[in-house]
């Protein structure tokens, strides 16, 4: 068999709006993909450099927070088996993705209007909608993932919802149709009770059960343990909301294969972004 006829390992891309979403939503399934020899890359859209707590602190506090949170993701992903060279950090503004437009957005936290991190994918990229779409298009073209994990359209966090819209916009523009698995992080009281319930199943919110197609991914016991260890790396978050974060460690993870959404999805900040349903045609063996 010649080298060129050798089959390319399946490529998986996990897209996280903030450093920690990747482990909370996919900390188990990432391990399963790696076990099967798949190539897993993680794309952090923001570095989590915004926080309501301490809004009045100086910009340098939030820049340091972004740097710390990025490092926490690298540590957590190392535990899950993903090398840091497979982590791409874009550095767009935390709590600002839904505000991106044609003119550069200024972060309320870091007070910058462009990517301030030298280790980011494109340092100096302006905080505009166009710049983020360009980065995503370039990464999707380079990586050609067969499977993408991304936020659920009904996620109530503005950044999560915006990432969903941006990803769909770019895939449609490029004419790519990877399999999509949508994960939910923020959905009211859905996760209650909070805390360590590693034996409990994670079930979809009642209001999202009927019109959606949930894939249940069961974790092996050692994968649950490793996911737990990975989540403990996010110390900037666990110091305040450890119970909340550990609530995502359950015996399974959940992914919506085909979330029911409207043809035009309302933008969380009131604007409308045109959106057509991106159908997943390429099937993925996982
Ligand atoms: Zn998030």
Output the strand order for the largest sheet: 3-2-1-4-5
Number of strands: 9
Net shape:
globular
**What is the number of domains?**
1
> Which ligands are bound?
zinc ion
- Residue runs with pLDDT of under 50 for 5 or more positions: 1-5, 262-286
Which key features would you list for this structure?
single chain, binds zinc ion, 286 residues, 32% helix, globular, five-stranded parallel beta sheet, alpha/beta, 6 helices, Rossmann fold
Q: How does the SSE layout of this entry go?
A:
Elements: E1 11-16, H1 21-35, E2 39-46, H2 59-80, E3 87-92, H3 129-143, E4 147-151, H4 158-174, E5 179-183, E6 214-218, H5 221-231, H6 235-246, E7 252-256, E8 264-266, E9 272-274
Parallel strand pairs: 1-2, 1-4, 2-3, 4-5
Antiparallel strand pairs: 6-7, 8-9
Helix pairs in contact: 1-2, 1-5, 2-5, 3-4
Bound molecules: zinc ion.
Zinc ion (ZN) is lined by residues 17-18, 21, 157, 160, 185.
Please explain how this structure is put together.
- The protein has one domain: LmbE-like (Rossmann fold), CATH 3.40.50.10320.
- The N terminus and C terminus are likely disordered.
- The protein is about 30% helix and about 15% strand.
- It is globular, with a radius of gyration of 18 Å.
- Strands 3-2-1-4-5 form a five-stranded parallel beta sheet, sandwiched between helices.
- Strand 2, helix 2 and strand 3 form a beta-alpha-beta unit.
- By secondary structure, the protein is of the alpha/beta class.
């Amino acid at each position: 068999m010649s080298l060129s006829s050798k089959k390319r390992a399946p490529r998986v891309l996990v897209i996280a709006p903030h450093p920690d979403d990747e482990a909370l939503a996919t900390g188990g399934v990432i391990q399963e993909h790696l076990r099967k020899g798949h190539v897993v890359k993680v794309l952090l859209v923001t570095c989590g450099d915004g926080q309501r707590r301490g809004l009045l602190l100086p910009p340098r506090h939030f820049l340091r927070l972004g740097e710390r949170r990025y490092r926490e993701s690298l540590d957590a992903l190392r535990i899950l088996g993903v090398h840091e060279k497979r982590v791409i950090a874009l550095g767009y503004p935390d709590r600002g993705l839904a505000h991106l437009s044609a003119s550069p957005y200024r972060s309320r936290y870091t007070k910058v209007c462009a990517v301030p991190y030298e280790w980011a994918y494109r340092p100096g990229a302006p905080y505009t909608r166009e710049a983020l779409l360009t980065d995503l298009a370039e990464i999707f073209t380079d990586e050609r993932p067969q499977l993408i994990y991304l936020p659920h359209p009904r996620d109530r966090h503005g950044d999560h919802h915006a990432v969903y819209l941006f990803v769909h916009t770019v895939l449609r523009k490029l004419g790519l149709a990877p399999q999509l698995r949508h994960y939910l992080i923020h959905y009211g009281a859905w996760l209650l009770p909070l805390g360590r319930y590693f034996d409990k199943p994670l079930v979809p919110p009642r209001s999202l059960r009927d019109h959606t197609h949930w894939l249940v991914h069961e974790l092996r016991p050692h994968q649950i343990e490793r996911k737990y260890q990975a989540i403990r790396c996010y110390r900037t978050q666990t110091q305040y909301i450890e119970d909340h974060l550990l609530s995502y460690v359950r015996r399974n993870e959940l992914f919506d294969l085909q979330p029911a959404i409207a043809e035009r999805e309302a933008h969380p900040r009131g604007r409308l972004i045109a959106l057509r349903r991106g159908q997943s045609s390429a099937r993925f063996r996982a």
